[in-house]
Structures are given as C-alpha cells and as structure tokens.
Amino acid sequence: MPSTNETNGAPAVPANGSLASSAPANVERKGSISGSNKVKLLKPFNTANIKILLLENINETAVTGLRNQGYQVETYAKALSEDVLIEKIRDIHCIGIRSKTKLTRKVLEAAEKLGVIGCFCIGTNQVDLEYAAQRGIAVFNSPFSNSRSVAELVIAEIVLLSRQLGDRNQEMHQGIWSKVSANCYEIRGKTLGIVGYGHIGSQLSVLAEAMGMRVRFHDVVPLMPLGTSKQVDSLNELLEISDFVTLHVPETEETKNMIGEHELNRMKKGSFLINASRGTVVHIPALAKALRSGHLGGAAVDVFPKEPAANGKFFESELIGCPNTLLTPHIGGSTEEAQSMIGIEVSQALIKFINNGTSIGAVNFPEVDLRAIRDEEENSIRLCYTHQNVPGVLRQITDILAEHNVDKQFSDSKGKIAYLMADISDVTPEQIQEIYRRVSETPTNIVTRVLY
Ligand SMILES: NC(=O)C1=CN([C@@H]2O[C@H](COP(=O)(O)OP(=O)(O)OC[C@H]3O[C@@H](n4cnc5c(N)ncnc54)[C@H](O)[C@@H]3O)[C@@H](O)[C@H]2O)C=CC1
Ligand SMILES: O=C(O)C(=O)COP(=O)(O)O
User: Annotated region Disordered: where (predicted)?
Assistant: First the structure.
C-alpha cells in the first residue's frame, strides 16, 4: 500500500490532477523551500498528492529522498507483469524502474497522469523514449554511477576465465581435486579488445592497463585513447587480434546480434568473450556452439535476451553447462556504492523536474533550466510548456505573455518536441489562471504546467 507522508501545506491539486498537465489549482501563495537558501518552492500541488511507483528494489536512498518531499511512494522488489503494470501505472505521476521493466508504448498509453520516468540504471532501452517524449514525459537515468562496478566485475572475470576458476570451483564443491595448468594463463601482456569505449569501456581500459594488458578498442565514433590503448578500424580487426573481447555497447538496432557465428569464428581459437552490456548483443546459440566446440576458451555472461523478473529458480539458457562459462544474474551494476549513488542521483533529478520543471539530464527531452526564483521575487510564477517543435510557437507564447513581466525565459528543442521555461513576476491569481488557460489551449500544446 502507498505510504503517505505529512503534507507540507501547499495548495491541493484537483482530485483527478495530473503532473502531465498541472493547472494552477489554487493560487494561494506559499513560503520558501528553506530558510537558508531563500528560494521558492515551486509547485502548484500538494506534494502528498503526487504518486510515485518504484519497482525492482530501487535503493533506499531514493525512497527516503522522495518520501522526504511528501510524495506518496509505493515500492516493489521486482518488476511487474505487463497486465499488472498497466493497471498500476494509470494513476501515478512518476515511475522509477531499473533494467527489467519494459515501458512500451502500450504501457505508456495507459499512463494517463504520468509526467516523468526515472531509470535507476544506465540503460534506457527498456523505455519507448520517442513515444514518451511525444507525450511530454521526461525520462532520466544515471549515466555513470555504476560504470566502475561493471568495470571491476569485468576485470575479475578476465582473471577467472584465464585460470578456469569457475570450473575449478564447481569441481571442488563436488569434492573433485583437479590441479591443472594446461590452458591457464596470466593476463599480463594479453590483448583486451573493448567494443564500445564509453563510460564503462574507457574505465575498464585504465584498470586493464594497470594489470599489464594491451588494450585495443572499437567504437563507432573516434575517441581519445586512454593510456597506451589504441582504437582499431573495424570490429573484425578487433576480434582477430584480441585474447579477450568485452562488450560495452548500448542495446540498439545496430548492436542486436552484433556478435554471432560469423564474428565468433573471427575470434582467435581459445580466446574469451565477456558480455555485460545487453543480452541481445550476442547470439546465444552461436556462443553456446563456439564454447562447446572448444573454439572459444570460455565466456562470462551477465546479461541475457530474456531475464527473469524476480529472484528464484527461473533461469534457462543454452549456456548452462558450457565449459569455462561464468553466468551471473545481471549484477554488473549491483554494488552498494553504485545503487546508493544511483538512488540519490535519479531521485534528485525527478524532484527537480516535478517541483521546479528542470529537465537537465533528461535523455529524451530538451534540457532546460532556469535559476531559482528567490523569496523576494514576489508573486512570481514559472511556466513550463512542452510543445510540438513547429514554427511560430514562440510568437504565440510571446503574445500571451506580452502584457506581463517575463523575468527570464529559456527554450530548447529535441527532435519533434520543444520545452520552454519562463519566470513571470507580479501576476495576480486571475492572471495566472488566464496564462495557464491560453497557453494550454495553443494547438501545439503537449503539456503546460504552472509552478509557483
Ligand atoms: N551489466 C550491467 O549491470 C550493466 C550494463 N550496462 C550496459 O552497458 C552499456 C554501456 O554502458 P556505458 O559505457 O555507460 O555507455 P556509453 O554510452 O558511455 O558508451 C557506449 C559506447 O558504445 C559505442 N557504440 C554504440 N553503438 C556502437 C556500435 N554499434 N559499435 C561500436 N560501438 C558502439 C558508443 O559510441 C559509446 O562510446 C549500457 O548501455 C548498458 O546497456 C550498464 C551498466 C550496468
Ligand atoms: O545500468 C544498467 O544499464 C544496468 O544494466 C544495470 O541494471 P539494473 O539496475 O541492475 O537492473
């Protein structure tokens, strides 16, 4: 059940109130966000009416941060089935997910009041970003708080694979003593091939060099090589020269089955494959074949095309039982440090968007912010207007605001949508209602919010 914290005395949102179109419900003025920084708390709603659903065991730092705002926060330890999610999402203003929950167009169509999505992870492939943007729903993620955790896991896996530690460990637990050195190697001097030299790939590059590895990488864009690493011209070249190939690309149309039979055949005999990116990047039957035939010396796989929604005995894969194959349940980013940082980072972005309209860091939405309205700026409002990105819109808005004092204004666009924030001072309650009505009735309106 949702747990409701105390209200902060702010004016109430209408009973059917939606963050995605927050009209000024009651224009009674309220005090400052805190005595210390003297900036106004910008919101036309009672925070206790804002409903937030957090799935997939999102860290306590986020739950606490959001509850401290007074929002209603309901939490679940696992992902929900599509049917249950469609029911749950109807009534909520904000949802927090990790990599399992699929926010498809079908699910989002049911989300009548949704204004913002928090992905408490790096990947955002699980959300229909374009449809969310069309609906004026901003999506935030945590672009690098778990990168180090993934890079450290991969370093561990390189050593484990190289020494066949997974198999030795299993044998020992079965009472089998099998002391061998054949096909076991030091990693010093070996070539690590990194596919995708972004936040994780480049961090890994530094750690691997510190352990004496030679690093080569492939990326679709030219990037500055760290240390003595080098970018190579093609994926094929990287596959042919590497002793270890590790994948750190996002899930896109281009990366789907990026490593299949053809690519595995290009890899050196006895080399190793590591995938901690997304399950769709590797063709699993081809990998199982390459492992069973002995063409590959081993693999470490953390992500799978189909992953169970909850913990339990639900995992099935053709990779089960393959030689020298480390299988982990998508734990690349699962450390206390990463989860705690992600919880803080994403919940802060959600709070800023809900309360102040700030979209900095959004992945599908124009990034706009204005400096805070200060206490002494009496009777000020903030207009947040998400609209279709077509010619002539700013003229309409300028006409509507022409008689008022616009203190500051900023707008930006991304693809088909644009977002404008404007702070307007010395407006009466009647004028606020009128501004809201006229802006929200413009033909290009997607979402209009007035915060004060
Ligand atoms: N196993 C786990 O728990 C985790 C998995 N991940 C996955 O790792 C992925 C990578 O994360 P970051 O390094 O933070 O992303 P990033 O966006 O910083 O870097 C990705 C790099 O891949 C490159 N790239 C994109 N398409 C490519 C292609 N077709 N061929 C070659 N390079 C390509 C990009 O140019 C970029 O440099 C995430 O998208 C996520 O899916 C992220 C965190 C945890
Ligand atoms: O950050 C990511 O993209 C991840 O894959 C980690 O996902 P998780 O938060 O563990 O479901």
Answer: 1-31
